[in-house]
Structures are given as C-alpha cells and as structure tokens.
Amino acid sequence: RRKKAQRLLSSHNIGCPPAPLRILPKKTGIRAVAMLSKTCEIDDGGIHKRTKMPPPNKVMQSTFNALRYEYEKKPALFGAGVLGLTEVYPSFCSFVEALKQLQSRCGSSPDLFFSSADIKHCYDTINQKRLFKLMRSMVDEEMYLTKDKFVLCCKGDNSAM
Prior knowledge:
This protein is an alpha+beta fold. 35% of the residues lie in helices and 12% in strands. It is built from four helices and four strands, in the order αββββααα. The termini are far apart.
C-alpha cells in the first residue's frame, strides 16, 4: 500500500499538490481537514529524496485572481456567494437594511426562519464535468494575466510608490 501511495503521489499531475491533513475527532469518527496553506513534502520512493511542493493555496492563487476579476465584472453570476469573510458582513448589512425597509412599509416584521445544514460528502459528489462546463461558460477570457502584488518603499521613507 505504501509503495502504491508513493507512486500515485510522485506521479501527481492534476495541477495542484496534495495538502497536509489535520485529523479532528468527531462523535462518529474523524474529520480530515486539508491545510491548504501549508507546504507538503512528498517522498518519491528514493532514499532520503523528498520533494517539497508549494502550498495548494499558492498554486491556486492565479485561478482565484481570475475568478475574482470575473466576479467584479459580473457579480450577479455568483448569486449569494462571497469570496471571503470580509464580504459576509456587508451582505448581512444589506439584508438587515432591506428587512428594515420592508418592516417600515408593512408595519410588522416578517417571520424569519434560519437553517443550518451539514451535507455529508458534498464536495465528493460534485459532477466535475458539469462544474468545468459551468466554469467555462462564466469566464470570458481565453487567458488571464496575473502577477503578485508588491509595495516598493524607498529606504527611510514609509510612503509606498
């Protein structure tokens, strides 16, 4: 089993390296959580030959930047989705404001119902071909140019150029 796993990992060619796992206990077993910001070392089967792979988040950063660009051009395509925790609060504030306006027009507050769900194996059951087709329909460009951001400061001067 170990040899087979090493062979599969060394021929890993899906564009994104494997991520180290953190195991969390649950009532009914365990939950494996991928640590996407950590580098992973892969043993390629040789004696003390380990290949250090970049973190999956780093590998996927350009893709994320391209999707953010598309999101900024056409946010309606993404529905109620948000691209990070910083977008949750403004969305919530918009919801509360719309609710207050509705309450002032109607004179009473509508009933609110909240639900929380944990869908078992939800990412395992995503149809990859359908997802790829959906993504192709959302992107306009054939190629995206992305680059890392940096701030250039002069020595002794804290103002950014």
